[in-house]
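Students often ask why we bother encoding 3D structure as a string. The short answer is that it lets us treat folding as translation between two languages. Here is a chain of 268 residues written in the first language.
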Amino acid sequence: MSTYRNLSVAGITGLVLTLSLGMASPVRAGYAVAPDVVVFCPPTLRHAVSDVGALWRQQTGVPVRIFTSPTEALLQQIAHHARDDVLIGEGDGEARAATGQNLVQPETLRKLWRNQLVVAAPDPNSGHAGSNSPAAAGNLAALAGRAPIAIVDPWAATAGAESKTALQSLGLWQAVSSKSLGVVGTADASFLLAQGKVKLAIVYETDVAADPNFSITDRLPAAGYQPIVYWVALTEHALSPNAARFVAFLDEAPARQRLRADGLEVLP
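And here it is in the second language, the structure alphabet:
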């Protein structure tokens, strides 16, 4: 009986991903596997990690392959043997799960960056903003309960739960939620804002940095919600010989500068 009958759908998916990534570019002389670095990260980090990956490739010639999903889903993919060299995740609980399930090399795990919750509006200087687009700080308080605002549902993701906590600390939760459009992620909130369906959107600072048509009108007080911190680790079965070098590159000055420009606070 063929052993392939015992493979789960997730296992087959992981196998296909592993094979496809391995064939993504020619193997260089001296490498037992393709030198490409495969990175898993949350969706809101795609733009920042893509930018720093481009810097890395300019310096080394080694491509970075980026795949995004919420951290919990990424852990499930790795558990089903999807090819990944570097995991960038969010949250202490997820970090404990990654080490507890032996999915990452615990000695390599460390905190990297912090994201902030901000209120975004169409940038009046972008050429894409409507004539009634808010532009001055304090618009959240002015428009709460009077205009549609996109916000992640508290049950759906960290951004939603922490946005609610921050708005409650400001005394604005009831007003904002009374006229809000709930979404499952900040990407959806950004989409509604770009389409003119809402006046404001509560998103991550990285979401605003990724879209030149957005500007920040307000920042939710950092003391009003739990820090949104990302960590990095090499996966337990990392294959790329360049994985550790890429993680080290994240601490180099050009990478840190680029990441700050993409809306991240770089932790010491």
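Translate back mentally: Residues 117-219 form a domain with the D-Maltodextrin-Binding Protein; domain 2 fold (CATH 3.40.190.10). Keep this in mind for the problem set.
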